[in-house]
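Practice problem 4.
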């Protein structure tokens, strides 16, 4: 009984430390991302920005290791991959966000954009169709339908040009 009590007490005492560490890594990752994107990239210091992005990815992955359901870490991971022109990895991160919180309609659209960037047109359309299930807003539904139509037109035009 004493061992159980001590174990529970330790878990209670250590929980804030784990949360603080998770928050710290998330904030460090955000800082690296922002430094690379807002400070270094506009000054055409791409090599340094890439180093910042690499550090950001490392920090976000630390958060995910400790707390695999942290949608903010996945969202920022998607942003980092997106600015590094890694659309498949960005899409994967954004899709994890919507898996964790299906109500994130905007994130479905971000995922679809990245899927298009990695030439996964059918999956982009499926992702947008899934987004429609999580909103009743007619304006949003109409915009999503426009996006789907544009993807289909683009895909068909690309197939025709690839044949030529």
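Answer key:
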């Amino acid at each position: 009984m004493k061992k159980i009590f001590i174990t529970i007490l330790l878990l209670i005492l250590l929980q804030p430390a784990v949360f603080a560490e998770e928050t710290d890594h998330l904030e460090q990752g955000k800082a690296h991302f922002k430094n690379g994107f807002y400070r270094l990239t506009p000054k055409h210091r791409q090599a340094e920005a890439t180093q910042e992005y690499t550090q950001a990815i490392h920090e976000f992955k630390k958060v995910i290791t400790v707390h695999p359901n942290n949608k903010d870490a996945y969202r920022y991971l998607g942003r980092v991959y997106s600015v590094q022109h890694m659309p498949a990895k960005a899409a994967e991160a954004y899709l994890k966000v919507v898996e964790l919180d299906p109500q994130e309609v905007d994130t479905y659209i971000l995922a679809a954009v990245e899927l298009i960037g990695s030439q996964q047109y059918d999956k982009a359309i499926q992702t947008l169709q899934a987004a429609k299930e999580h909103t009743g807003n007619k304006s949003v539904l109409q915009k999503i339908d426009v996006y789907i139509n544009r993807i289909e037109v683009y895909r068909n035009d690309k197939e025709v040009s690839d044949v030529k």
